[in-house]
Write a structure and sequence with these properties.
There is one protein chain. The protein is α+β, with helices and mostly antiparallel strands. 25% of the residues lie in helices and 26% in strands. It has helices at 15-25, 44-49, 118-140, 173-183, 190-194, 210-213, 226-229, and strands at residues 2-7, 29-33, 52-57, 65-70, 77-80, 94-99, 102-108, 144-149, 188-189, 203-204, 216-217, 220-224, 232-237, 253-257. The strands form three sheets. Strands 3-4-2-1-14-13 form a six-stranded mixed sheet. The chain has a six-stranded mixed sheet with strand order 5-6-7-8-12-9. A two-stranded antiparallel sheet has the order 10-11. Strand 1, helix 1 (15-25) and strand 2 form a beta-alpha-beta unit. Helix 3 (118-140) packs parallel to helix 4. The chain binds one DNA strand through residues 9-10, 13, 34, 36, 60-62, 111, 113, 119, 151, 205-210, 246, 249.
DNA sequence: ATGGTAGGCTCCCTA
C-alpha cells in the first residue's frame, strides 16, 4: 500500500502534473493540500479519468485539502473536517477519513508569515489543536497515516542552511517544539525513519533560484502510528516534480506499507 | 538587509 502527500499549490493549475503523477506513481491514497478551489470547482471528472475518487474539503482562493483513493477501493468515511479551533473554524486545512481499519488525514498547517505576526500565533494555536486531535487518534490504536504540509522543518538536516533559519517561521524554536510534542505521542516520521542520514527536501521556494541552487526544506511529512510504522518498507520524495515546467513549489512525499 | 516568484484575485494578499 502506497500513501503519498502533496501540496499541489492550486489543483486547477497543477491538474496536468497531478494526472500524470497519479498514473505513474499509482498511490493507493493521495493526501493533497492547497487546492485553492471550492468543492464545486474541484476537477473531479479529470481525476476519475485517472482512476481516483476524491473526498474534498474546499474553500475559495485559499487552503483546501483532499483525500484521493482508488476507484476500485471504498471511499473514505469522513471522520473530521476541522480541528477544534474556536477562533478560525472556516479554514479548510484538515480532513480525515476511515477506510477499512485505516485512518487517513490530510493537514495543511498555517505558514505563520513572521514570528511577530498574528498569523504565527494562529500557527501555534493550530498546532496545539492538531496535537489534541492526534492524541485522540493515537489512543484509538488504529493504524493511522497523517500526511501534509506541516510548515515545520523538524531538525537542522531539514533546512539547506541552518544558520540562516534561526528565526524562520518553518524552523523557529516554538515550531520545532510543537513538532516534538507530536512526535512524543509516539508518531513516526516515515521518511526520516527510512532515510536516517540523507538530507531530503520537499519544498523549494519559487523565489531566489531556490530549486537549481538546492535551497530546500523538508516541511511535508507522513506521520505513522506505531502499527502503521511496523509495516513501513520504503519512503521517498518525487523531487522530479519540482523540475517540471509550472511546478508546485512542493514535491510529493510517499511511503510504502506492507 | 532585502527581495525575490507564483497563484488567485483585484488594485493586494498569502506563501
Amino acid at each position: 500500500m502506497k500513501i503519498a502527500t502533496w501540496n499541489v499549490n492550486s489543483i486547477r493549475t497543477r491538474l496536468p502534473h497531478l494526472q500524470a503523477w497519479l498514473t505513474a506513481s499509482k498511490p493507493d491514497v493521495a493526501l493533497l493540500q492547497e487546492l485553492k478551489c471550492t468543492a464545486e470547482e474541484f476537477p473531479i471528472a479529470a481525476l476519475q479519468g485517472a482512476g481516483y475518487e476524491a473526498t474534498v474539503l474546499g474553500q475559495k482562493t485559499w487552503n483546501g485539502v483532499a483525500i484521493l483513493t482508488r476507484q476500485d477501493a471504498p471511499k473514505p468515511q469522513l471522520t473530521a473536517d476541522h480541528l477544534n479551533l474556536p477562533d478560525n473554524p472556516l479554514d479548510a486545512r484538515y480532513i480525515e477519513g476511515q477506510v477499512g481499519d485505516w485512518r487517513f488525514a490530510s493537514v495543511y498547517v498555517p505558514n505563520g508569515q513572521s514570528l511577530d505576526s498574528e498569523k504565527f500565533s494562529y500557527k501555534l494555536r493550530f498546532l496545539k489543536a492538531l496535537e489534541e486531535r492526534l492524541c485522540t487518534l493515537m489512543a484509538s490504536e488504529l493504524p493511522v497515516v497523517v500526511g501534509g504540509d506541516f510548515n515545520i522543518a523538524p531538525a537542522a538536516d531539514d533546512v539547506y542552511a541552518p544558520s540562516r533559519f534561526g528565526d524562520d517561521v518553518l524552523y523557529a524554536l516554538p515550531v520545532r517544539q510543537a513538532w516534538r510534542r507530536l512526535i512524543n505521542q509516539g508518531w513516526i516520521d516515515g521518511l526520516r525513519l527510512q532515510h536516517p542520514h540523507q538530507q531530503l527536501f520537499t519544498w523549494w521556494d519559487y523565489r531566489g533560484n531556490a530549486w537549481p541552487a538546492g535551497h530546500g526544506c523538508r516541511i511535508d511529512h507522513l506521520l505513522l502510528s506505531p502499527t502503521a510504522a511496523n509495516r513501513l518498507r520504503a519512503a521517498g520524495v518525487d523531487s522530479d516534480q519540482r523540475a517540471l515546467e509550472q511546478p508546485s513549489d512542493h514535491a510529493p512525499v510517499w511511503v510504502e506499507l506492507a
